[in-house]
Amino acid sequence: MAPGTLDNVVYGLFSTHALHLADRHGVLAHLIERGPSSAADTAAALTIDAETLERLLLVLAAVSVVERDADGRYRVAEQTAPFLDSRDPRYLGGFVDHLVTNTTGQLTRLHHYLERGKEAVDAALPSPFETIYRDEEATESFLRAMWQLSFEPSKELAGLAGLDGTRRLVDVGGASGAFAVAALDRYPELHVTVFDLPEVGTHLERTRDARGLGDRLGFAAGDFFRDPLPAADCVSFGYILSDWEDDFCLELLRKAHKACASGGRVLIMERLFDEDGGPLPTAAMNLSMHVETRGRHRTAAEYTALLEEAGFTDCVTRRSSWDKHLVIGSRP
User: Fold this and answer.
1) What is the CA radius of gyration of the chain?
2) The domain containing residue 226 runs over which residues?
3) Closest by alpha carbon to 43, among 88, 10, 74?
């Protein structure tokens, strides 16, 4: 019999898809709203197949996502419920959907990378964000996943950033505004401009209008490899530098140095590798970066080295209680 850690790896394929399907077909929402229910009763309420549902729920019970009582009724485990409830800001359903519908299909390229290398295999493919923003549906799916991954951690990161006294912040590649909104909610004197590709503009406008932020949240369309960054007291990069190689990251940080006011700062918000190579979510997303982008995850020391080479000083790392942390550099 294989050890439990190996079982989790071998059979993880099934639990991920079971979770995705249970969320997609409203099973988790039903159990959260109605309480414990049998597979048969849940299937009848949702007009889905009872036998298939029972098998999916048994997988989710085996990995403790749901719990099964002596009467065969299922309930969503208390510790996982906030992350599986679409009404909760910690909901991860959109991210799981992105993993299953986008990332999984691209992982097959890893076989060819091993044989020929990424550069040769990807030579004829479009750039990463041409693929990610290939149409409105793909753009919406990606931005939804990024919001779900980023908004709750951004609340804590905004506090760790210490933006009291900062008036103008430019959030580079800020997507639909997860960090921008978190910072604006915390610092009433702050104004934020999200700098991103034109495809993102309408999505950010929806965020601004839905949250009543008015002219405190602006959008500047551009390509950060071709265009200069808007001037600011502080420049932030959330989940951006992990998309690119070191040379591109250094180029971006040098642009941030030029855009940043004297005495200003740059914020790098990323998953960070420990010195021993963990944790698992960072290692897994590092593999995802390999097929979906051109980047990788790094240690805090590696980001500090890039910041210093770009001209920033007094670099510090501030770790959050989430899996996304903050590395800060100051412009002398």
Assistant:
1) 21
2) 93-330
3) 74
